[in-house]
Amino acid sequence: MKIILTHEVTGLGAAGDVVDVKDGYARNYLVPRGFAIRWTKGGEKDVAQIRRARKIHEIATIEQANEIKAKLEGVKVRLAVRSGDAGRLFGSVTPADIASAIKSAGGPDVDKRRVELGSPIKTLGGHQVSVRLHPEVAAKLGIEVVAA
Fold first, then answer.
1. SS3 readout for 37-80
2. What is the DSSP letter of 30?
3. What is the tens place of the pLDDT at every residue in 103-142?
4. Rounded distance, CA 126 to CA 5, Å?
5. DSSP bridge partners of 115
6. In the 3-class helix/strand/coil scheme, how is 83-128 assigned residue by residue?
7. Using an 8 Å Cβ cutoff, are 127 and 78 in contact?
8. Which class for 133: exposed (0-12), middle (13-18), buried (19 or more C-beta within 10 A)?
9. 12 with 25: CB under 8 angstroms?
10. Residue 129 per-residue DSSP state
11. Dist. CA 87–CA 61, nearest whole Å
12. Which of 41, 62, 125, 139 would suit a FRET pair with 81, their CA atoms being 20 to 30 Å apart?
């Protein structure tokens, strides 16, 4: 299925790109979450508008991304969650939890869609998280998950 991306999707493309994906992936994941719209001939106008907005945004944020990266890497983030006796969490830590913990620790406001987890965080202790601020700039952030 041919779709137009409205947001950047890791491993697939940036906003405004027209890509071919499997029908189920588009129907069940990308379109319902607002990451993409179905491609139509009339949608080409949308592609041009999305690309223009992306171009303006990228030029303005490459310097800002480096500034935010420096701020993020200087923040100590502690996240208190419920856990069992063996140090396993009830559930897992989500990108939204990490984004709110960064803000409460005095860091900059980060969109939860920019937080990338290598694997689900389901145990107490220190973990590394990547925050993709720009296609060329990513900040490595250490978070400490502690029992609440």
1. EECCCCCHHHHHHHHHHHHHHHHHHHHHHHHHHHHHHCCCEEEE
2. I
3. 999 888 888 888 999 899 999 999 999 998 887 888 999 9
4. 34
5. 131
6. ECCCCEEEEEECHHHHHHHHHHCCCCCCCHHHEECCCCEEECEEEE
7. no
8. buried
9. no
10. E
11. 40
12. 139
Instruction: Kindly state the tokens that stand for 106.
Output: 């005095």
Residue type, 136: E
Q: What is the pLDDT of residues 1-30, one digit of tens each?
A: 999 998 888 889 888 889 999 999 999 999
Residue with tokens 């490595």: 140
- CB proximity list for 5: less than 8 A, separation 6 or greater: 12, 13, 14, 15, 16, 17, 18, 19, 30, 35, 36
Is the pLDDT assigned to residue 55 strictly greater than 80?
Answer: no
* Structure tokens belonging to residue 57: 């945004």
- What's this model's pTM, rounded to 2 decimal places? 0.69
Quote the tokens at residue 23.
Answer: 């029908």
Phi-psi region of 119 (alpha: psi -120 to 50; beta: other; left: phi over 0): beta
Angle at 64 between CA 61 and CA 67, to 5 degrees: 155
